[in-house]
Amino acid sequence: MNNETINGDIRYINYRFDLFTIPVLTTCLPLIYLIPTIFVIIKIFRVYVDSVMIKKNDAINPHVFFVIVLQLTLSFFYMLADYSTIRIPATGIITSWCASIQPNHFLKILYFSSVYFNYTAMMMPSLLSVLRVVPVYNPINLDSICQKIVRVSIPVIVLYPFLFCFPLIPAIGDCRQLLGTYQFGQIYFYWTGSWFGWRMAETLILNSIFWLATCLISNLILYKKIKKLQIKRESAKLRKAERSLTLITISMFPAYITNFILVFVFIFWPTASAYFLALRPYGSDCDFVFVPWIFYMTHPIFKQQKVTPLGAQRAGLERTNTII
Predict the structure, then answer these.
(1) Residues 163, 253: contact at Cβ < 8 Å?
(2) Mean pLDDT across 18-43
(3) TM spans, by residue (predicted)?
(4) Residue 255's domain spans which residues?
(5) Which range is least confidently modeled, 113-127, 161-175, 234-248, 289-303?
């Protein structure tokens, strides 16, 4: 990475944007799958409002559905943060503007938003995994336990990133030239002047390891318990719902992996980190794209099928047999 700011550098102020470059192509191509994904997320939100908030369908676990909806929302902001701090600056389209201004807190906030939603993206899969474990160990008090977990964990997830980002309060953001094979004028946002000479890399890699381990352990406990109890679902819907949630959890892992690789390389091979920086957004894209598509395409709640009346369905289902 680069330690020299371009702010005030006349060479960058006079820079002319070139439309026909690889960073421009890699910034535009993801729109092919990001825009359809947004429409899928809107459909998921509509089903959530209709089935959970309005009809209050007893066959649905509202806490798991809420966590998935929240995860999709946070992933959307994470994707926007990556675009504003990595993809768009790398195209060179804002280079002249960025070089013409002084380092400021607005650029720092843009960088901070990327780090903040990076932390939330790491924590949400663990929460989803824990909620899936609850019905296996305590199906009788499922609602009350899940409700308590969600009520406690959501504020923690919102506030937790500030524990590692508060030293950035006095820092100011600036623009820097990407090194390696990147062309002149292709930049990225960074910061300087934090408290205690704080660096984000070390805490990010430790959190990546911790939350990935938490997610993996939760899922291992889940499947070990299911295998031990030899649970056999009679309902095809329930089996499909469990498979859907399993695929959703797995689809969240690429964000862990790409983030871990980038931070690891940044710590030990800083000069090579510019190349991995270009790959990191695709890890968050996996999180943003795979989760809603898998959820929408595989979960029975989105299948338009004829079902038995709700009263009869409730009579025939145990409380542990919620379809989400």
Answers:
(1) no
(2) 92
(3) 20-42, 63-81, 116-137, 149-169, 204-223, 244-269
(4) 10-303
(5) 234-248
Question: What does the block give as tokens for 183?
Answer: 């062309």
Q: What are the tokens at 130?
A: 């824990």
Residue 322: inside a domain, yes or no?
A: no
pLDDT in tens, 46-104: 999 988 888 776 667 788 889 999 999 999 999 999 899 989 999 999 999 999 999 99
C-alpha dihedral (209, 72, 296, 252), degrees to nearest 10: -10
Listed as own residue / partner, the contacts of 275-282 with beta carbons closer than 8 Å and 24 or more positions apart are 275/180, 275/181, 277/86, 277/178, 277/188, 278/23, 278/26, 278/86, 278/90, 280/82, 280/86, 281/30, 281/79, 281/82, 281/83, 281/86, 281/87, 282/30, 282/254, 282/258
Which one-letter DSSP state was computed for residue 185? T
Q: How many domains does the chain have?
A: 1
One-letter amino acid for residue 299 of the chain: H
SS3 94: coil
Residue 299 maps to which CATH number?
1.20.1070.10
Q: Is residue 265 part of a domain?
A: yes
Q: Is residue 4 part of a domain?
A: no
Please give the DSSP secondary-structure letter assigned to residue 322: -
CA distance 314 to 3: 62
